[in-house]
Design a protein that fits this description.
Blueprint: H1 8-19, E1 28-30, E2 53-55, E3 75-77, E4 98-100, E5 120-122, H2 131-134, E6 145-147, H3 152-155, H4 160-170, E7 176-177, E8 180-181
Parallel strand pairs: 1-2, 2-3, 3-4, 4-5, 5-6, 6-7
Antiparallel strand pairs: 7-8
Length: 187
């Protein structure tokens, strides 16, 4: 008999029971490693109105959804899922400062430009192959810290220095790439 996936509502209820807190009042909600895994982000997440950090890492989620009511969300952690695009992220674009979405199947960055306050973007080990997609990050003026290693685009460069030079030249606003500070000539 196959196990039914955990719903966001069930995961939230489990979290409340374990923490003895009301999820709607909490600032940090961690729903990673659910068993059975969560497969869909749904409207139950919109009840988390005070949540500033939401972790749904290490589940089986295939798309971003259900977060429109999260008016205070600053950090969203979706690493190690099956997400294929950033569609749905725009509903939290005004508040989101950090997006941790490494180890997914994202090959396009369409929609990333809506994230005007995004400072930290961890998107390593996805499937981005083209500079045209990478260049969309130029639309994120607040971006300072980018982890992009493990994407085909990065891996297809002749060496790490070529990658770092190309990436930092394209994204003048970043100060850290793949965990290493960027040193720019100031003259």
């Amino acid at each position: 008999m196959a196990l039914k996936p955990t719903t966001c509502k069930d995961a939230i209820a489990r979290w409340e029971k374990a923490k003895e807190e009301t999820a709607a009042e909490a600032k940090v909600i961690e729903l990673q490693f659910q068993w059975p895994p969560i497969e869909k982000m749904d409207g139950a997440l919109s009840t988390l109105v005070n949540c500033e950090k939401l972790s749904l890492s290490s589940n089986m989620i295939d798309k971003i959804a259900g977060i429109a009511g999260m008016r205070n969300l600053k950090i969203l952690s979706l690493g190690r899922n099956y997400i294929k695009s950033l569609a749905g992220i725009e509903t939290v674009a005004d508040t989101l400062e950090e997006l941790w979405i490494s180890y997914n199947s994202i090959d396009k960055l369409k929609g990333v430009g809506a994230l005007k306050n995004l400072r930290i973007f961890y998107i390593s080990n996805n499937t981005i192959k083209e500079w045209a997609e990478f260049n969309r990050l130029q639309e994120c003026p607040a971006l300072r810290d980018l982890v992009f290693i493990g994407n085909p685009l990065c891996e297809n460069q002749p060496d790490v220095e070529t990658w770092r030079t190309q990436a930092s030249n394209r994204l003048q606003q970043i100060t850290k790439l793949d965990g290493i500070p960027i040193v720019r000539d100031t003259d």
